[in-house]
Amino acid sequence: MHPQTRLTLAGQSTDSTFNSVSLPIYQSAIFRFNADGTKPEYDYSRSGNPTRTALEQTLADLEGGAGAVCVGSGMAAVASVLSLYPAGSHIICSHDCYGGTERLLSWWQRQGKINVSFVDLTDPLELALHITPQTRALWVETPSNPLLRVTDLYQVGSVAKDAGIDFIVDNTFLTPLLQRPIDFGADYVVHSTTKYLNGHSDVVGGAVIAATKEGHEAVHFAANAQGATAVPFDSWLILRGLKTLPIRLRQHQENADAVARYLATHHAVEEVYYPGLSSHTGHETAARQQAGFGGMLSFRVREGFPISRLLSATRVFTLAESLGGVESLIEQPATMSHASMRPEAREAAGITDEVIRLSVGIEFVDDLIADLEQAFDVAIRPEGGTPRTNGHHVPRASTNGVTVHG
Fold first, then answer.
1. Per the structure, how many domains does the chain have?
2. Alpha-carbon distance 258 to 254, whole Å?
C-alpha cells in the first residue's frame, strides 16, 4: 500500500482485547509476568511498551529498516547511536550540522572520548581525505541545517562502504516520505520526531532506525541501558501526528517553494537557500535522491540589514526555534538554534549573523508572503517614516481562499 494509506492505518491492530481503532495508550510502567513465571513480551516500559512499539514499527516500515528505537528527544537519538562506538573512535560529521549535534560531538572530543572531523561532505574528495584507520562512522545531515547544503548520499555512501565504516544520516528535514537514506546504503537513520513526524509542536522525541537486525539490537541496548527510551503518551502523540504527515508535507512544500521564489526577488536578500530552486548548487542532486524539496529554507540578507527589526515585525511567522510544525517559524540560527555551536565552527560553516531560517508552515501562502513583505517594510523603514515597498505586488489579505490585493 501507499505510505499515505499505511500511515492512516498505523496502530489499528495493536488492541487485540477490545479492537479499538485508535491506538491505545498503554500508560503502565510495569506488566504482569505469566503464571509460570516466564517473562512476557513486555515487562518494564523502559525496555518496551506496546504504544512505543507501534510507533517504532511504523517508522521502521517507512524508512525501509529492520527496526526502530524511539527515544525522548532528537538529541537522545543522536547520543544513542553515537554511543555505540568505543573510546578513541574517529567520527566524520557534516561541518554545518545541527548545533546540538556539533555541541555533543565537540564535548565528547574535549573529554577525550572520541575524535571528530567536521567536513564539507558536499565534496566526496574531502571525505576520503579525512578517513583514518580509527574512523568508525560517517554522520551526514542532508539537507543541512541551516544552509540546506545537499550531500550526494550515493557518493558518500559508496565511500563509507569501501572504507568499512558506518553510514549515519539525519533525515529530520525530509522524513522518510521525501528521502530514504537506507536505500543509499545508510546503516542508521536519525530523526528528531519533535519536528515533521509529529508536526504539531506539542511533543519532544527522537528515533533511530537501523538497516539491520543487529544494528537495531545494538541501538535498543544503548537506549535502554541509558534510560533514553520514549514514554507511551509521547509515542502516541507522534503516531497520531504521522497519520497526517503526507497531507501536511504537500502543503509545507507548496508554501516553501512560493516563499523561496518571493525571497529570491527581494532587494534586501543576497541569497536564498532552498534546494527546490534551480539556482541552488545542490538542486540536481536533491532532485535525484529526494521525492520533494521539503518545507525548510534559509536566506541571507545584505550586511548591515536590521535583522532584529525584521524578526520582531512578523505577525504570522513566530520567532521561535524548532521546525516542522504546522505553524511557520522564523529564527536567526547564529543566536538561536546554533548558538551552542563553537563560533569558529559557525564561521567555517558559513552560519553568519545575516542568515535567517524559516520553517514554512501550512498557512494560506498569500498570508505568509504578505507577512514577510510587511516585516521587511518595517525593518527598512526609517524611524517615523512612511512605509516603503520594494516594487513587489503581493497579496495583502485573503478571505475564504479568494485573494484580495491591496
1. 2
2. 7
